[in-house]
TrEMBL record:
PANTHER family: NITRATE/NITRITE SENSOR PROTEIN NARX-RELATED, OXYGEN SENSOR HISTIDINE KINASE NREB. The keyword Cell membrane does not apply. SUPFAM superfamilies: ATPase domain of HSP90 chaperone/DNA topoisomerase II/histidine kinase. This is ATP-binding protein. The chain crosses the membrane at residues 24-42, 54-74, 81-100, 120-147, 159-184. InterPro entries: HATPase_C_sf (IPR036890), Sensor_HK_TwoCompSys (IPR050482). GO terms for molecular function: ATP binding. Keywords: ATP-binding, Kinase, Membrane, Nucleotide-binding, Transferase, Transmembrane, Transmembrane helix, Two-component regulatory system. The keyword ATP-binding applies.
Amino acid sequence: MPRRVPAELSTATERFTQRRVERILSLVVALGSGVLGAQSFLNALGSTQETLHWHAPLLIGVFVPLGLMVIALASGVLVRLASGVCAVAIAAALLCWPAATSGSTSPATSDPWIWYLLNVATAAAAMAFPLAVQIGWVVFIPVLYTASRLWQVGLDRASVVEVVLDSSFALILGGVIVALGWILRSVAVGIDDARRDAVRSYAAAAEADAAEAERVAVAALMHDSVLAALIAAERAETPREDALAVAMAREALTRLANAELDAGEGSDESVAATALARAVENAAATGAGRVPVTVAVEADAGEIPGRVARAIVLATTQAVANAIQHAGGRGLAVDVRAGRRTVAVRIADRGAGFEPAAVGADRLGIRGSIVARMAAVGGRARVATGRQGTTVILEWERPR
């Protein structure tokens, strides 16, 4: 049974792109806010547009939250909280601007230092607030600046034109900032959703494939061991066939007892070619009397993967059982050859043969227990049958 992925890990994986985009946006906003904040701070140090008792509180109330926001954005800690505080602090400074500049005798012809922070406030809102609030902040900050600045400089034509142009520039740039943030976040969410759907589809397909593989394995186990043993016991009429039925029943009980451990497939540890040959001899002799087995193992045959060897032995066992059950074991002989490149096992009898087209789809003796088993380990099985008998050839070739 597959293990379930923890919910927090699954969520983090599904939001991978979104988290990366948020991190990139944080760094970009931190860099831009830091540059604009430094420029504004240098201008604010020598500013005389606001009265003396307002100067220090405004600088502390604006640049302390701004500095904390830059640190939070760069470190990725408390980003929303610090950004929200900074956005509100700049808006509060704009609201206090008419009072801060009231009574000042300094000329107000140049842009005030707070003008450089208009889009910093918009960017901070983009990092802290929902989209609807971000859009409102894009409009609210320039409008607030326009009202505060006109209160300071008056309503003469030149001043109005200059202030409206400055506010329009801030409005346009703020809209671009919010739009880019929304686009990047939407793309990130779309990518994460697509990845999540693909992973879920793959998991569903893998689960279905595993279920199908388990069904085939259980069907093969039932046919190889249980059903074959029952059929052999029911048809046994001679001591030779009785011995075969007993051996098959013992094998069926062993494999059923170890089904959960996948014992039927054996380990992946490689075995020597001579060991494979002995296993094939034992499979041919178990319960089948004296079956002639010819073995030819070359000196450089080397080792064979454990699952391949197990598949060859099980397929041989099934082929021998078929020959005994359906051909009475007449002329049954097994030939084993192992070389440097290939391993081949030939099981032949001199029975009456059978008609392959007449074999039902639910019969797994040849189709599942021999052909499919060899194909599963990269080998192949060939079956030739006729009136002169049936020959099954199992072959496996080492990958080049």
